[in-house]
Amino acid sequence: MVPVTIAEPAVRSYILYSGILALKVLGMAALTARVRFRKKVFANEEDTKRSKGVVKYDDPDVERVRRAHLNDLENIPVFWVLGALYLTTGPSSELATWLFRVYTAGRVLHTIVYAVKPLPQPARGIAYGIPYLIKWYMGAQIISHFIGSL
């Protein structure tokens, strides 16, 4: 295992992009609320009182944002784990930074083309697929690096 320290540019890059992704996940709740208030559709009766909205569980716009949020919750924590483990393999700082940057850009783009300004396929598939492949690459590198130490 390669020592991982904050002095490493790849580690600082990982921290930066992990922070951006964490704020992005938090921002999805605000985006969901924005769509709910704009459409005046809520999941709970008490939320309808002030805005004179209705309880509705199947609004297509709200559900689209919720699915994008769920997609983040299914993918970004895996990036955090794989990214941290990937750093222990001693990757070049340039490659690691490039992977973290492209992953983050892809996840932000995925939200835009899925939940903010929906675009037809293959836009969402590309925005999802490239970060997905980055996770597979990092996972394969981790296994390849450590498999001989068993």
Note down, in words, how this protein is organized.
This protein is an all-alpha fold and 150 residues long. Helix content is 71%, strand content 3%. The chain has helices at 9-39, 60-87, 93-116, 123-146; strands spanning 41-42, 54-55. A two-stranded parallel ribbon has the order 1-2. Helix 1 (9-39) runs antiparallel to helix 2 (60-87) and helix 3 runs antiparallel to helix 4 (123-146). The longest helix is centred in the N-terminal third of the chain and has 31 residues, at 9-39. The two termini are 12 Å apart. Keywords: Acetylation, Endoplasmic reticulum, Membrane, Mitochondrion, Mitochondrion outer membrane, Transferase, Transmembrane, Transmembrane helix. Conjugation of reduced glutathione to a wide number of exogenous and endogenous hydrophobic electrophiles. Pfam families: MAPEG.
Outline of the structure:
This protein is mostly helical and 150 residues long.
Structural class: mainly alpha
**How many individual β-strands?**
2
Number of discrete helical segments: 4
Q: Please describe the biggest sheet, giving its number of strands, its sense, and whether it closes into a barrel.
A: 2 strands, parallel
**Rg (C-alpha, Å):** 19 Å
Distance between the termini: 12 Å
Mean pLDDT: 94
Order of helices and strands: HEEHHH
In what range is the share of β-strand residues? under 5%
Q: Characterize the overall form.
A: elongated
Q: Helical percent range?
A: over 70%
Q: How is the largest sheet built, in terms of strand order?
A: 1-2
- Which parts are unreliable, with pLDDT below 50 for 5 consecutive residues or more? none
GO molecular function: glutathione transferase activity
Main location: endoplasmic reticulum
Pfam families: MAPEG (PF01124)
Keywords: Acetylation, Endoplasmic reticulum, Membrane, Mitochondrion, Mitochondrion outer membrane, Transferase, Transmembrane, Transmembrane helix
